[in-house]
Structures are given as structure tokens and as C-alpha cells.
């Protein structure tokens, strides 16, 4: 019998990697922890960083991810041998539907990041490759706090970003440990700095303290007045300062925002038009703070989002423009200048929730707005409302198995 020549070492490695991607081979030393109701609290609470794969065996995208996830786990274990530093885990959502519901899993596979048991808002949405996932973990292990060696450094902080600065006598304090934990959770929303000992002494006249430097050169600093060691107080204050009520939507975070599943109230504005943005932010805070959680307040660059504008028959030259995207239809606020009229913007949002915007788009003026006795005189005008534009930024069905969920008719 004629023997086949042995494959060179590099060819074998290449062949093995192909098998891994195809799901035909399984790495021998993968350390993936299977989570269930009995162990999930203990494992996640004791993990500095945990990346959890929520999957279903019948989902082909889950099957494709398994060997990649396992190999990334191998790399992470080599770099972070302490099992409490980095944990790779998985949840079989068919077997543990209660866990899937607890973490609002709407697609398979979903990779959620946890820190000390707390689920991060931003899940992993990067490339599904060993290198990309391993690099994501490395980024999560980078210290988000920059230590300053002189207070002069803080005069040069980027005031176009939100900055949190802590002044501590020592790193070995309950206040600083809480500061570290909060910084790790909100690392994507704020820039964190810390000064210690003699460097921070002039700023610690009443003890350790933390301040917030808002966006803008002339905006005054804000001081945290709560207990520094209290995680709940520190996190709530920092989140309020770091996560703006009106967020910018980009192509990078569009999928994340869309997946939250609540309608958008969007200001389209020219990037340089900060005045319109400030007016919109002020009126949202004044009129719509009670609607937080039922609608996402966003602003978008007119040029970058030219297509949605054209969809509602607007152009960048007509900006600023305010619109609602309900994920079924888009509705345009009549005139931007009307945003300053007390209650006008709020009524626009309430009309979405009540279904009035939807009815008027399909059936003409709402009879509830007519003069008494003239209801029969209203001509019903059929319309063709523009469909949602931002729903196209939702998770792609070519990368996920999207679980069906009912949407309303707004």
C-alpha cells in the first residue's frame, strides 16, 4: 500500500484552523463553564470579567460560533491564568429559558459581558473570530483609569468628552475601590482620571472627592456629594453624568440602540450646528424627562444619515429636522422652531403612544381634533406613510437567529 506523504506542520495547522471554523473539530483544552440556575450567581459574581455565550443548539450561527468561542477561551486562559480574572461561559437557552428571559435574549447567539456579576449594557457585536474576541477581552482588562502625576495635566483634558476625576489619598481605600468598579462599568461612556497623595492634596481639603467635568470649556465642574464607598450612590451619580439623556446615534451603535426595542425621537442636525442640539437637549429635559425609558432621545449627523432624511422627504439643507421612528413608520415634527413652544414636543411623543400619529397617517385628521358638530365634514384622506428607516440597523438575520417578538402598530 502506497503511503501518502506527511503534510508539513504549517499545512496541518492551517487544515486544523479550517476545521475549527467549520465546527468539525473541537479544541482539547477549552474551559467553557456551563451556567445554570444553580451556579450562575456564584460564578458571575466572582468573575472580574465574564463573557457569556447565550446559544441554542439548533441555531446554525450558534453552531458556527462554538469552536471559535472555545479557541478564544484557550487564548484568554493562557494570558490570564487566574480563573477569577476572565471567565468564558455559556447558557443553553433551550434548557434554561428562565435565564434567557432574565437577560432579555432576543437572538442567538448573543455574547453578553459581565463585570463582578453585573451585566454590561453593551454586548459583544464584533467579528466572530478568535483574534477579535481575544482582543476584545484584552481591551476589557486595560485599566480605564489614567493616573495623573500633576494637576496641570488635568487642565489639558479633552473637554469635548465627559471626564470623571477622583482625588484620593491612597489607592488602598474603599472609596477608590468603588471608583475603580464604577470606572470599569462606564469605561465606554466617560474618561476617568485619578490623582493620589501629594499630587491630589490641594483638592482634598475636605477629604477624598470625585468631580465631573462636563462637555464644554465654560461649563462648571460638578462635585459628588454622596458617600464614595457606596457603590449604588457612586454608580447612579456617575451614570447620570456620563450617559447623556440625548445620545448620538452612529452606524457603530445603531444596532445596539435599535435592539433596545423602543421608538426613537431623533434630531437630525448639521454637525457644526450645536445651538439646535442644545435647544433640543434642553426641551427634552424640560418636557420629556418622564418619558425616559419609553422612547430613546437621539441626535444624528444630517450628512451621515442622509438616506433616512430623504426617506421623509427632507435634505441636509433643511436641517434641523425632528422625527420619530417607531420601527414601523417615521413621523416628522412639523417645524423645528416649534420645539420651543411649551408642551409641543411632549404632545408629539404622547400622540405616538396614543396611536394618534398612526391613525392620522392612515386616515387623515384625527376626529378628536375637529370642531364639535363638524366630524362628518372631515374628508378621510388615505396616505402612504414612510416606513421605518432605522429598523434596517437592527441585528442582521445573516449573523443571528432573530427570535420572533410582537411589535405594536405605532
Notes on the structure:
- With 410 residues, the chain is α/β, with parallel strands linked by helices.
- It contains 13 helices and 17 strands.
- It has helices spanning 9-22, 40-45, 60-79, 97-102, 130-141, 174-185, 197-200, 231-242, 254-259, 274-287, 306-311, 344-354, 356-363; strands spanning 33-34, 49-55, 86-92, 107-108, 110-115, 118-119, 145-147, 163-168, 191-196, 209-213, 222-223, 246-248, 264-269, 296-301, 321-325, 330-332, 401-402.
- It has a 5-stranded mixed sheet with strand order 1-3-2-5-6. A 5-stranded mixed sheet has the order 7-9-8-10-11. Strands 12-14-13-15-16 form a 5-stranded mixed sheet, covered by helices on one side.
- Helix 3 crosses helix 5 (130-141) and helix 6 crosses helix 8 (231-242).
Give a short synopsis of this structure.
This protein has helices at residues 9-22, 40-45, 60-79, 97-102, 130-141, 174-185, 197-200, 231-242, 254-259, 274-287, 306-311, 344-354, 356-363; strands at residues 33-34, 49-55, 86-92, 107-108, 110-115, 118-119, 145-147, 163-168, 191-196, 209-213, 222-223, 246-248, 264-269, 296-301, 321-325, 330-332, 401-402. It has 410 residues and is an alpha/beta fold. α3 (60-79) crosses α5 (130-141) and α6 (174-185) crosses α8.
Portion of residues in beta strands equals 15-25%
Count of individual beta strands: 17
Q: Radius of gyration in whole Å, from Cα? A: 26 Å
Q: Output the helix-strand order.
A: HEHEHEHEEEHEEHEHEEHEHEHEHEEHHE
User: How many strands, what sense, and barrel or not for the largest sheet?
Assistant: 5 strands, mixed
Query: What oligomeric assembly is this protein in?
Result: single chain
Across the major sheet, the strand order is 1-3-2-5-6
Instruction: Give the uncertain stretches in residue-range form.
Output: 1-28, 374-382, 406-410
Helix content: 25-40%
Mean pLDDT reading: 87
End-to-end C-alpha gap:
73 Å
Counting helices, strands and paired strands, the structural category is alpha/beta
Total count of helical runs of at least 4 residues: 13
| Shape type | globular
Amino acid at each position: 500500500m502506497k503511503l501518502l506523504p506527511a503534510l508539513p506542520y504549517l499545512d496541518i495547522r492551517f487544515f486544523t484552523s479550517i476545521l475549527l471554523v467549520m465546527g468539525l473539530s473541537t479544541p482539547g483544552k477549552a474551559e467553557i463553564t456551563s451556567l445554570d440556575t444553580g451556579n450562575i450567581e456564584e460564578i458571575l459574581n466572582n468573575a472580574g470579567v465574564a463573557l457569556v455565550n447565550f446559544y441554542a443548539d439548533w441555531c446554525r450561527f450558534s453552531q458556527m460560533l462554538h469552536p471559535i468561542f472555545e479557541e478564544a477561551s484557550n487564548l484568554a486562559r493562557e494570558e490570564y491564568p487566574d480563573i477569577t480574572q476572565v471567565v468564558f461561559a455559556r447558557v443553553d437557552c433551550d434548557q434554561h429559558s428562565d435565564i434567557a428571559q432574565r437577560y432579555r435574549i432576543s437572538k442567538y447567539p448573543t455574547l453578553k459581558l459581565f463585570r463582578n456579576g453585573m451585566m454590561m449594557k453593551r454586548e459583544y457585536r464584533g467579528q466572530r473570530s478568535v483574534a477579535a474576541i481575544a482582543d476584545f477581552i484584552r481591551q476589557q482588562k486595560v485599566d480605564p483609569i489614567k493616573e495623573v502625576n500633576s494637576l496641570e495635566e488635568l487642565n489639558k483634558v479633552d473637554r469635548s468628552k465627559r471626564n470623571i476625576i477622583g482625588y484620593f489619598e491612597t489607592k488602598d481605600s474603599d472609596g477608590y475601590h468603588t471608583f475603580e468598579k464604577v470606572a470599569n462599568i462606564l469605561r465606554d461612556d466617560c474618561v476617568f482620571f485619578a490623582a493620589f497623595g501629594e499630587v491630589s492634596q490641594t483638592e482634598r481639603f475636605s477629604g477624598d472627592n470625585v468631580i465631573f467635568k462636563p462637555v464644554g470649556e465654560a461649563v462648571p465642574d460638578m462635585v459628588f456629594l454622596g458617600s464614595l464607598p457606596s457603590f449604588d450612590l457612586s454608580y447612579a451619580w456617575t451614570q447620570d453624568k456620563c450617559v447623556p439623556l440625548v445620545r448620538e446615534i452612529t452606524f457603530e451603535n445603531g444596532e445596539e440602540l435599535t435592539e433596545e426595542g423602543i421608538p426613537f425621537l431623533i434630531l437630525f442636525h448639521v454637525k457644526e450646528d450645536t445651538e439646535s442640539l442644545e435647544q433640543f437637549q434642553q426641551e427634552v429635559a424640560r418636557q420629556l424627562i418622564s418619558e425616559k425609558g419609553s422612547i430613546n432621545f437621539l441626535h444624528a449627523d444630517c450628512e451621515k444619515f442622509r438616506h433616512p432624511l430623504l426617506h421623509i422627504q427632507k435634505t441636509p439643507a433643511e436641517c434641523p429636522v425632528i422625527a420619530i421612528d417607531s420601527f414601523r413608520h417615521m413621523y416628522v415634527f412639523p417645524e423645528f422652531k416649534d420645539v420651543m413652544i411649551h408642551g409641543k414636543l411632549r404632545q408629539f411623543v404622547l400622540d405616538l403612544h396614543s396611536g394618534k400619529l398612526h391613525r392620522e397617517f392612515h386616515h387623515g385628521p384625527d376626529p378628536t381634533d375637529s370642531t364639535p358638530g363638524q366630524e362628518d365634514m372631515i374628508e378621510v384622506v388615505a396616505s402612504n406613510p414612510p416606513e421605518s428607516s432605522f429598523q434596517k440597523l437592527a441585528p442582521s438575520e445573516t449573523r443571528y437567529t432573530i427570535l420572533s417578538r410582537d411589535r405594536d402598530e405605532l
